[in-house]
Fold each of these.
Amino acid sequence: MALTVVVLSVMVAAALWSVVTLTMLRAAIGLALVSVLLAVVLFTMGATLAAVFELSVGAGLIPVLFVSVVSLTRRQQQEERPMVRRIYFRRFWPLPLVLLAAGIALTFVHLPIAVAPPVQEGGPRAIFWVSRRLDLFGQVLIVVAGALGIVVLFKEGPK
Amino acid sequence: MTGGGESFLLLAVFVILLVIEGLYCLILSINLLRVLLGLELLTKGVTLAIAAAGFASGRIASVQPLIITVIIIETVVVAVASGLIVAIARRHDSLSVRVTRKLKG
Amino acid sequence: MAYAFLILPFFALILVNLMPRRLRAPIAFGLTLALFLAQTAAALVVLLSGVGGLAPAAAVAAPISPGPGIEGLLGFHLHLDLWSLLAILSAGVVGAGVLPVGWSTMQDEGRRLIFASLLLINLMGINGVALATDLFSLYVFIEVVSVSTYILIAMGGEGDAIEGAFKYLVLSGVATVLLLAGIALLILSEGDLSFASLARAAGKGGGLGRLGVILFAAGLLTKGGFVPFHWWVPDAYTGAPTAVSALMAGIATKASGTFGIVRVALALSQGGGAMREALIGVGILSIVVGAFAGLAQRDTKRMLAYSSVSQVGYIVAGLAAGNLLGLLGAALHFFAHAVCTSQLFGNVASVERATGSSGLDRTGGLGKGMPVTAGTSVLASLSIAGLPPLSGFWSKLLVVIALWQTGHQGYAVTAVVASLLTLAYFIGWHRRTFWTKPDAAVRPAVEGGAALLVPVIALSVVNVGIGLGSPFIIGLFVR
């Protein structure tokens, strides 16, 4: 339990870092870190398959996408440099304080929570293929749409 | 970690913290890619929330496919968003949110 | 059987993309159009042969239990009721109308194919939303519709297309977060995500369950573009290629949000009085804000975008009112709005083609050269404003009566006033676009080709037909 709290706290800190850090490259690394830690938490909760997905996607695919965007827009990123430091500091400095305050305030919250009773369950493979088949179809559609989207967007040259 | 309402509350604290970070980043960022970062953090927050809900009510195995689905969908959205950002950057020669701001609400 | 609505478009999608080079374009067009029309016909047939009230009847779908083997392979658990058919029918009609318009406004063949493919995916998304059995599947297919819409918007010719798409993506993404948050809370408090448990969570106590329902509903309202979450609507609609705006207004954003609200409202009908009141409030707010904002617009697409916000307000108000007339009015308006608004965007496409713009200041005096466009847009506008004997009149009338009957007289009056405002700005638009003297310097306007005119005429016919047939339809349900 204590371990989970530590992991989650580091996760929140990593997220904070990725929000305030100056370059998007570092932000991508921060996001990857958040994903890794989230995957760990998922694992300890028993969602092992989900943890693997989160790890490979969140700490793999998504940071790669971010880095690709950065490298493809290098020139535009350069424009940003001078003004970034000042502006971002002015905008983002309250964030850590807000988080701290919220964190402390929330630990005092005690709600009675009525939780639904647990049930007997099948393995993920069974669930996906049997009772959630429709979702599987939906996911296929989304992936196809995404692929078409990438094709369309990369044909957009500078106008 | 044991299940039950208590553990949900604990996890919920972190969910809320993540959501705050995500929202803050999304609303106040100037760089479009950073706005996307904010959206990502928000999504991770709710993913944690769903996992926590499943865990706390003892049905993590049924919730797992949901989490996986959310991750997949989230990935496609990020991919499309990245493509849009690159296209916008090329067109306007800037990554600033000012570009979208000019579309009046 | 019901899964045909999902499987057939999928096969069409595969075929469209695998055709040999030379045959591709015309086959893609024909196939996709045929599919949309087939969907419309099928939905109509099933709808007419169905009988009974508008309560969520038990699944008309033949429940094919998924097991191993080919037959099992194709089986989905689906929830088919009259509302599903309504959405499927609307999607078919709007899709059939949008395809030709989009086809003619996109020149490059590669883009046309991608347009058709995305349109098919969008359609499958809407069908999925209509047939979903629980809240999570609803979310998944709402995302299918959203993602395909993001890309469709980005394909726009207009300068702001890609930026509009990004803005829409971000706001829609926040809506998704709301949906998922609601789902999380419902998992916690109810354990499962069926529509029945939604009803339970809304009805009985349990703060967390209630909060879950509210969050989920908020996500749906944002996706659907209701006030006060409507900020993304005008920009998204204006930046998109006009055909896509037609799609969005007619069915895509609607299916996303409004149909979800249909499910929520139906669940609330067993309890949750306070939430229903809130929902009616949201509806009225949308009606009013949409009407007032529409008045101030200088660009036709923006004006139509706000009008659309106003119309979905009527639908939600009727749903939340909960009685038979309210539900019937909402259903009719769902369809009427889909048909009329899509048609109006089709008209705008014609205007854009003739004059190169959709701004009110830059178009004018088109009446002589474009009689078809002028005429059909009159019909659609009047229908939306609620004039008899057109479709919009009946649907709005029912909603107003339902509001009156359920003790919301003030709201009923407001709805009527808003209707008059809507009439006002549509007449204003008409005058400025079609009836003023054409500027001598502007080249004479001519109607666009068949691809632009046929769908618009067809939709007009449907509009008038529904209007004339409404008393009969109403009679079927009110005994």
Amino acid sequence: MKQEGNALGGLGSAAKTVLLILYALFALFPLLWMLILSFKPDSEMFTTTFIFTPTLENFRAVFAESDFLRTLWNNLVVSVLAVGLSLVAGVPAAYALGRFDFKGKEDIAFTFLSFKFAPEILVIIPLYLIYQQLHLIDSIVGLVWVYQLISLPLLIWILRGFFEDLSKDMAAAAQLDGYSWWQVFFKMLLPLVKPGLVAAGLLCFIFCWNSFTFALLLGGGNTRTSTVSMTRFLASDTVHYGWVAAAALICALPEIILALLIQKHLVRGLSFGVVKG
Amino acid sequence: MQPFIALAPSFLLTIGILIPFIVAIFYSFTDRTLRSSAFNIIGIGNFVDTFTSPDFWHSVSITLGYAFWATGIEMVLGLGIALLLNEENWLSKFLRLVLIFPLMVAPVIGALVWQLMTNPSVGILRFPLSWIGLGGFRWSADPNYALFSVVLIDIWIYTPFVVILALAGLRSLPKSPYEAALIDGGSAWFIFRNLTLPMLAPVLLIALIFRLMTSLQEFAIIFASTRGGPGDRTLSVAIAAYSQAFSFYNLAGSIPMLLFLWAFIYAVCFILISYWRKAQKSHCERCRL
């Protein structure tokens, strides 16, 4: 697209650059500040701004003097298992919704999406009581199950779009050749949607890894995830700002890398497959 | 039959979520607390108490204010930035790559990072503020600016969401109407108002639906930055229900608030989705021209 269609076309290119840089500063400086603080020693925390003797002490302390490493591990385990379960259950569902016409299809698809309309707390409160009885509070199983609310609708809706994009004739031809329903699925369609599948899975992972409320209220000492443990660094009596920054950086880095990997599919993913970027 | 077999596992998993939902509705007619499993059925008392309480309507106004300002500013700012980024030069290319970072970082981390920015002793923002005579500005600790400070975090995180959706929409626009408009000599604003905006409507509506849906139920950002305080200045419905259930153990009393919030989000999204369907239809007619 050229700039003719631009409401801001009247603006000089210098003004445009200035506006963009101002926004970029707003968007990126907080992350840069987190990076700076994470390398700043406690002794210089309050006396210096940009110029100081960088140290790795904050990173060492976060791992050695707190249970941050364990909470990172918990977050990884819960998120990976949650996405895995979503893939097992969600891929066939997306296949059915994307490739077949049947009565009530749109209603079923919308039902999966509508779980997103419910405030997380509304699910958590009754689930808390049920988990209490099933002894699932503070358990990996309990968190993986409730994380399906985050990852399953997202996965089904993104993948459904990818399945819809595939040509219908191809599968029909394969079926004429004597392939069964499942063979068509595994041998033909699955390899074709693989890039979409990887992107959808990684996006689900990012959202599980980022989630906070479920882990805060249904988790506990044994399953505390890194997002929950991070808020405790600030709440403690002697706040080590460098620790907070280092922990936040460690937690944020994998997501930024993953986001760069799936950039191409991000529009589709973030809009639940509705906008095909 | 086959599609239903394929859908079965997902249904089984989500029934585990639907059952609690029904349980919640049941408990809203009781006096169930978080601590004891004994309860009596008390009818619609919890609903009457909630909907006649000024505290509840205060929370509703906080929630609406939060969602209105956050979503509104994100939509306008996001669309503006997308228009600026819709060009092929090195700065746009680079920014398209890095501007999504705030969106990918956990909202909790976003809230923490802004606390590191606005902290009175280590926050970098204390310098520019003191130059313009606002050295004592206390951000989320100031009752008058707490909601603003929290909304700012939401804007920081979610503006990139609107940007990348709007950019995708801009890039899929057909070129021929623009060529025609240029021949007719339309001004940049006229072209934007009469061509770009109507054709972008479906994508912008999707962005609006997702932003409203999330900001109306936002919990993590507010919890990690203010926990509803100072006082009740950022006490949204979600946070108020959390403290009813988990701080005051008034489990049954918290459910009517959440059911209200849920019904409200559902209604708003339902209306916007029907608008979106209409916009998409007229959008496609335009494409065929």
